[in-house]
TrEMBL record:
Keyword Ubl conjugation: no
InterPro entries named in the record: Cystatin_sf, TseB-like_dom
Keywords: Membrane, Transmembrane, Transmembrane helix
Domain Cell wall elongation regulator TseB-like intervals: 43-87
Residues annotated as transmembrane: 12-30
Matching Gene3D superfamilies: 3.10.450.40
Protein name from the UniProt record: Cell wall elongation regulator TseB-like domain-containing protein
Length: 164
């Protein structure tokens, strides 16, 4: 004897509802976890526009060197490429003309050629010992975590933490 068609539909519909609920919960959790960082990046961009005269924002990076910093990569009113370093917990903004130091691409090229990483995870500017510095986080070929801090103006390597 055959089962009626409706008895086959109930488990399928129930399974689809459960999958839909799980997917919606995942999207909600992901959105809640990303929201604070997006708000901080938007706030850093707004501060750079208001106090440093940035008119165009290309990107926003963040780093954590004893303190958290957001770096706004953009162009100011004078059409100069600048980085604006914004401390997360308040303090003075630091405006750096990109021509006065290494650009993000130059730092990344240096890391790729000298360290041959498997993957670069992050490269951003923060303040290290009172001066602007690039902090590059990357994985070695063996998958070990590495950090290198590089002086913005000279390109001198200030600190290396390797094979974590």
């Amino acid at each position: 004897m055959k089962k009626p068609r409706s008895s086959y539909r109930r488990p399928i519909i129930l399974t689809l509802v459960v999958v839909l609920v799980v997917m919606l919960a995942g999207v909600f959790i992901l959105n809640r976890s990303i929201a604070p960082n997006a708000r901080a990046e938007n706030q850093a961009s707004s501060l750079a526009k208001k106090y440093a005269g940035v008119t165009e924002v290309s990107d926003v990076y963040w780093t954590n060197l004893h303190k958290t910093y957001y770096t706004v990569d953009g162009v100011n009113k004078e059409k100069q490429a600048v980085y604006v370093v914004v401390p997360q917990k308040g303090g003075n903004l630091v405006v750096l003309k990109q021509k006065d130091g290494l650009t993000r691409n130059q730092v990344l090229q240096r890391i790729w050629s000298s360290r041959n990483p498997k993957k670069v995870l992050r490269a951003s500017i923060g303040i290290f010992n009172g001066k602007p510095a690039w902090v590059v986080t990357y994985l070695s070929q063996k998958g070990k975590l590495n950090y290198e801090t590089i002086r913005f103006t000279t390109g001198k390597s200030l600190q290396k933490i390797i094979n974590l």
